[in-house]
Specification:
It comes from Acinonyx jubatus (Cheetah). By secondary structure, the chain is of the alpha/beta class. The chain is 37% helix and 15% strand.
Length: 512
Amino acid sequence: MWPELPQVYLQDSFRSRFIRMSLPAPPRLVDLAGQSLLKDQALAIAALEVLPMELFPPLFTAAFAGRCSETLKAMVQAWPFACLPLGALMKEQQPHQEIFQAALDGLDVLLAQEPRPRRWKLQVLDLRKNAHQDFWAVWSGTRASIYSLLEPEVAQPVKKRRKVDSCRPGPKQTLAPVEVLIDLCLEEGTPDESLAYLIRKVKQGKGLLHLCCKKLKIFAMPMQNIKKILKMVQLDSIQDLEVNCTWKLSTLGKFAPHLGQMGNLRRLLLSHIHMSAHSTPTKEEQCVSQFTSQFLRLHYLEELYLDSISFLKDRLDQVLSCLKTPLETLSITNCLLSESDLTHLSQHLNVSQLKDLGLSGVNLTCMSAGPLQVLIERASATLQDLDLDECGIMDSQFSAILPALSHCSQLMTFSFCGNPISIAVLEDLLHHTVGLSKLSHVLYPAPLESYEDVRGTLHLGRLAHLHARLKQMLQELGRPSMVWFSANPCPHCGDRTFYDPEPILCPCYMPV
């Protein structure tokens, strides 16, 4: 037996450990040295000439936090790595405008130097706030983790410059541009001072500063303002474009030439394009052709989202025929389509490798099930997510597509809320899909039998009984882990009732 320790000793021991845990960690020597160096601006700037590269990030972070504008400006010019991930630091510390401008001014001075300094390594100024998240944090770790972030040729201690013979000039350096990476969101409202300053620097850079943007979002903004900004952007750098504007078709036609220059575009989302009541059919056709012809230049497009596009009816084939490569994602939502549109879609080469197909809000009630069945069958080898919400699909149509659904071996999620389906068809669906090993989530509508009246009032007791019946069938068929949800819009407030696995009711069904 161990001897019993006195109660006072145990209390003192616990108290001392608690105090040690609650005290903040002491500052590192490198941080203290950096703070001391920054107190003398002239000394700090002069020290950059011989400062080891591993000390740059902590000193830069301290200068950034302390708003040491001139030192920061000099550090940008002397930055010893190929990339300066300024955006990640801006996300953490929310800098003042003067600090952001100081960084750009330092880049401006650097670009003006000819010949360029031998120590110059900077190729990219990354202003994206969600990129290189771990760059600044890793400097508190080991040297091995530090060097893992660097290019092999860069990850070497900086040596003192050697004298060169000034009488023997070397070959003239080619002035390669420096890239500034940014995610742009163009919308009306308070002017973005940082963006305005950046655009001004790009204009003054005379081609030595390239503004590159991987993600571009456009909201409500006058077209002339959009054009002015896009004129400064390397459009072939854009990979993800979202246009969330209420544009007329003629406005889309004016934007189309810019879209055609985005040759590396991977993802395109276009929403709320409407036709003017005063536009002639000839003018409409001209604008549609101007837009769809740009797809011929988008050789890498993988994801296409079209929401509330008024000109698609009887023209979907015109859009698809201009696509150069098979799509991985096709989402056509809240659009009017004809049966011929759906037929063309099912026969098109670009749908054979779809992973994600969405037709939510496309009314299919009066169409035959054949085109949809062919479409699902053709994508069955690759399809992972299928969304047929609010399509008005009836029992007979749904029964027709069940064999095709049973062949979707990669299917993981299937949603078909808002369709008038009976419990018999739901049970049939369960039997057809229970063999799909990857299918884990099914979002289904309340069966017709669970409604009290034609106004859409749910009988919660019936719905609970039907839901329990489906769960029991899954258990008996050996798929208890397959999650089936029920989601139904309330006729009063529009909120939905979910079962996950118990009912989550909208306020209209809550007891007073």
